[in-house]
Amino acid sequence: MNKIILTCGFISGILTSLFVLGFYYIDPSIMLGLKVQYSSMLIVIIMMFFTGYKVRNSLGGWIDFKTVLKTAFGVYSISIILYYIFYYVLFNFVDPSLIEVQRTIQIENFESAVEAGFMDSLMAKEIAAIKEGILNEDLSVTFVVCCYGIAKSLIFGFILSLIVSIILRRH
Q1: pLDDT tens-digit map of 22-38
Q2: Residue in 92, 96, 91, 84 with CA at minimum distance from that of residue 16
Q3: What's the number of domains the chain is made of?
Q4: 92 is in which domain, residue-wise?
Q5: Backbone phi and psi for residue 141, each to the nearest 5 degrees, phi listed first
């Protein structure tokens, strides 16, 4: 069972990274968008279900909650760790200019929110200060930043694994 969790988690992490990398080659600003980041999670979710079904079938069609939770969370964890390794390498070695692309996107999103009226309660001075903060913010993708991202993702992944486990378990 551990072998299938490792294999499927590895495949999921590689597919997720390749999915995001495809958008990088189309346009790095698209890759950094939330739509791509959230849609890449579909690959992980599909692999969590696939692995859960595979383990359940290997156990004769019966799987308890604990086993399917371990399976789903294992696949998620391996996938996310591989994805963050990819993310770290991409931002630090392949294309360090992505940090400035990310900064530009943040400024554009903020300006769009201002123009749409979402920031009406702010004074011009406050808006300028926020833009200045974005311009001066350290967006470096460091080892610590990646570890923090993994930790946050694992919390979400555990909740997602609980949902997958509830759906897949059979008594």
Answers
A1: 999 999 999 999 899 99
A2: 84
A3: 1
A4: 2-168
A5: -95, 90
